[in-house]
Amino acid sequence: MLFWGDAMERQYELVIPANDNSGNPIKAGVLADAVDRVTDHFGGSTTFTRTVGCFLSDVTNQVECDENIIVQAVHSGSDVTAQDLAADQAFMVVLAKDVGVQLGQESIFEQQELDTKTRFVPGDRRNVAYPDALANEKRLDRSTLLRNVLRR
Q1: Is the pLDDT of residue 46 over 90?
Q2: Domains and CATH numbers, the chain
Q3: Which one, out of 1, 14, 16, 142, has a CA that is 20 to 30 A from the CA of 94?
Q4: How confident is the model over 76-113, as pLDDT tens digits?
């Protein structure tokens, strides 16, 4: 089992609204662009779809809730430096700003967790899973998968 222990490590999250301020759904391509940028920068990402976030509105002074999509990445390893983490932070701020401007948002929630501990638990790498674990469906390409998720 690989465990980075006390190595420098950080988890990043970007919360993207699923709808604009008028309730119009955001195109899958906007999400795909953010996912691609995070994946290219970090070497991988995880996307959580259709999460709900609530906040106290400065405009209405009421609690409002929105559907959101979370794009998450972790940077860890024995060779990660403070400079790497500073570059990651700058990257995420620029991405959040770009997404916020594109979607007409007052702000975009970007989070960094400093106390994340990551481990990769070994499995049994094979080209095909055990037959009883397989669905009788073809794997969707990334664009189709993101479009399907956004339609829910």
Answers
A1: yes
A2: 2-119+131-147 (3.30.70.120)
A3: 142
A4: 877 888 898 899 999 999 999 999 999 988 888 898 88
